[in-house]
Automatic annotation (TrEMBL):
The keyword Secreted applies. Its cofactor is Cu cation. It catalyses: 4 hydroquinone + O2 = 4 benzosemiquinone + 2 H2O. Lignin degradation and detoxification of lignin-derived products. It comes from Morus notabilis. Keywords: Apoplast, Copper, Glycoprotein, Lignin degradation, Metal-binding, Oxidoreductase, Repeat, Secreted, Signal. Transmembrane segments: none annotated. It holds the Pfam family Cu-oxidase_2. It is an enzyme of class 1 (oxidoreductase). PANTHER family: LACCASE (PTHR11709:SF317), MULTI-COPPER OXIDASE (PTHR11709). InterPro entries: Cu-oxidase-like_N, Cu-oxidase_2nd, Cu-oxidase_C, Cu-oxidase_fam, Cupredoxin, CuRO_1_LCC, CuRO_2_LCC, Laccase. This is Laccase. Gene3D superfamilies: Cupredoxins - blue copper proteins.
Amino acid sequence: MNKSCFGAFLLLAFLFPASVDCLVRHYNFSVVLTNTTKLCSSKPTVTVNGQFPGPTLYAREDDNVIVRVINHVNRNLTIHWHGIRQLRTAWADGPAYVTQCPIQPGQNYVYNFTLTGQRGTLLWHAHISWLRATVHGAIVILPKRGVPYPFPKPDKEKIIILAEWWKADVEAVVNQATQSGQPPNVSDAHTINGFPGQVPSCSSQGYTLHVKTGKTYLLRIINAALNDELFFKIAGHNLTVVEADASYTKPFETDTIFLSPGQTTNALLKTDQAIGKYLIAINPFMDAPIGYNNVTSFATLRYKKTPPNPKTILTKIPPQNDTPKTKAFIDSLRSLNSKQYPAKVPLNVHHSLFLTIAVGVNPCDTCVNGTKLVADINNVSFVLPSIALLQAHYYNIGAVFTDDFPGNPPFRFNYTGPSPANIQTTNGTRLYRLAYNSSVQVVLQGTSVIAPENHPTHLHGFNFYVVGMGLGNFDPVEDPKKFNLVDPVERNTLGVPTAGWAAIRFRADNPEVHTTWGLKMAFLVENGFGPNESLPPPPRDLPKC
Ligand SMILES: *[C@@H]1O[C@H](CO)[C@@H](O)[C@H](O)[C@H]1NC(C)=O
Ligand SMILES: *[C@@H]1O[C@H](CO)[C@@H](O)[C@H](O)[C@H]1NC(C)=O
Ligand SMILES: *[C@@H]1O[C@H](CO)[C@@H](O)[C@H](O)[C@H]1NC(C)=O
Ligand SMILES: *[C@@H]1O[C@H](CO)[C@@H](O)[C@H](O)[C@H]1NC(C)=O
Ligand SMILES: *[C@@H]1O[C@H](CO)[C@@H](O)[C@H](O)[C@H]1NC(C)=O
Ligand SMILES: *[C@@H]1O[C@H](CO)[C@@H](O)[C@H](O)[C@H]1NC(C)=O
Ligand SMILES: *[C@@H]1O[C@H](CO)[C@@H](O)[C@H](O)[C@H]1NC(C)=O
Ligand SMILES: *[C@@H]1O[C@H](CO)[C@@H](O)[C@H](O)[C@H]1NC(C)=O
Ligand SMILES: *[C@@H]1O[C@H](CO)[C@@H](O)[C@H](O)[C@H]1NC(C)=O
Ligand SMILES: *[C@@H]1O[C@H](CO)[C@@H](O)[C@H](O)[C@H]1NC(C)=O
Ligand SMILES: *[C@@H]1O[C@H](CO)[C@@H](O)[C@H](O)[C@H]1NC(C)=O
Ligand SMILES: *[C@@H]1O[C@H](CO)[C@@H](O)[C@H](O)[C@H]1NC(C)=O
């Protein structure tokens, strides 16, 4: 464990022990079936090391992380380190059939990556089918040894993982949806650190956050839910947001945290209220006419020395369609942009893409009406290949993908107006090619095809700056004038507003890694010319298809 990361640093480590002391952190993730009872119902559940949520991965910035994943279940599996930049370690990113073939039953794979330029909280999760519903956990990246947080040092840290729980087998849920072409059944509960809270007709236990009075706690809050955007609120206590997606933010005070699936936020909690018991509420947010799990989950914040049977202090829970609340939260998020942590927003744009995000239909023999719902970007529904894209690219295997992904939709329409008559989409495994170190602007335009809805969108291998956001159709003349190119928040996941748009910028400095969106399209970043600007060969144990 106490081995220096790279031989070349040994001398430096000797000379500057405080600043260069990266470690190799070893973890074993044994993927097993665990009989789990929640909501008065039991099911065999796929977990890591028998835990739900799974084990926390702790490391410091610059550490090398080695996770040996051993698949003991009868399902294909991969693990994605959500938000880790994976500079030149694309083989360790994890999405199935994109950067690797699945780890098949009985097989192992060692994920090997180094944490560079990130500190805060992220999450890891399975990245195949819906296994991530129960196969997920926190990643805590501490600052380098001797480097302080850019905010008052908290007395204690607590991890808060929000998720969704289905009483049914999640694979059965998604398979049924795929077969029928209908939206999948919504979850039965929202969980906090694995606890569903009180649910009608089942007296299940809720989570308790135990605190001492007069302290400052750093809450590392993760939305590991599959589908639902969530509000997080503690009665009687404001929170000070200091970080999002492992990038520091300008601190701001709020009574409610808002997180899309895959997003993480660090916030300071001061336990400066009267000793007692306070309600914690997890409430979903939905402002579109589609099905979702509308059940609020509750937990409690409990001060030490609270007398027995106290009255719980309640709070006003944000309404489930409180769009202004989400907007206020999102607008408050700004990069810290200090001398030490500058926001490096690309000012010149080499590639400018306009991507419409929509739901459409495709023919489907097994489906109820002969059609199934599909998601598309610029009218292309991404079809996963049967061998991993990155391998196909590295080994030059033809006929797996094409690099002609369209940078604009096939035709312009009133994206947020009435749904067009023809909602058929095209299929394709099409990638968009980016030159190494080129800067990219992507405008993500939500559409009302079938129904408007909010789309959480995640970029693998890169962080991006959210330079603008708005409702309705993006105006290519007026809207860019209002872009924030000074201190926009840096993230890896964003929610594109319902019937609205978001503009992001990033630099394609992660060579040859191709990356995917949640609603799937892929970038192929070409090699650079320097020694550290190309993708190394795959590890020997990379799973085969
Ligand atoms: C992982 O498992 C191997 C084999 O059982 C064992 O030798 C090793 O010590 C374990 N590592 C950790 C970090 O638990
Ligand atoms: C799972 O747990 C339930 C409830 O405790 C029990 O009835 C059932 O037998 C268990 N199943 C297995 C396979 O252990
Ligand atoms: C992890 O990757 C580094 C860099 O390629 C390599 O030096 C190291 O040996 C690898 N570690 C393991 C355990 O595979
Ligand atoms: C989905 O919900 C429907 C209606 O409640 C139910 O009949 C069906 O069994 C559920 N599917 C799964 C896989 O649980
Ligand atoms: C909590 O923060 C809100 C701003 O979001 C502010 O209006 C309110 O006064 C604060 N409440 C307390 C108790 O500080
Ligand atoms: C949740 O949805 C169910 C069924 O659609 C409805 O009966 C119930 O009133 C809703 N609850 C809330 C809190 O909106
Ligand atoms: C199938 O189509 C009919 C007629 O358009 C419609 O009423 C029904 O809701 C559809 N069923 C499903 C499951 O989509
Ligand atoms: C687009 O549709 C919206 C909603 O129906 C409407 O308010 C708006 O005027 C339309 N825009 C144009 C340019 O037609
Ligand atoms: C999507 O592609 C299909 C098939 O080419 C076409 O019929 C449809 O009009 C396109 N829709 C949009 C919104 O581009
Ligand atoms: C798209 O691909 C799916 C399989 O991935 C297939 O079922 C469907 O028929 C295809 N749709 C079109 C329009 O080609
Ligand atoms: C990438 O581009 C930026 C901005 O133009 C430049 O500062 C940097 O040196 C470039 N990096 C490489 C490796 O070319
Ligand atoms: C598991 O992955 C392999 C390799 O891609 C594939 O051949 C096999 O069909 C998959 N098994 C299941 C159950 O999906």
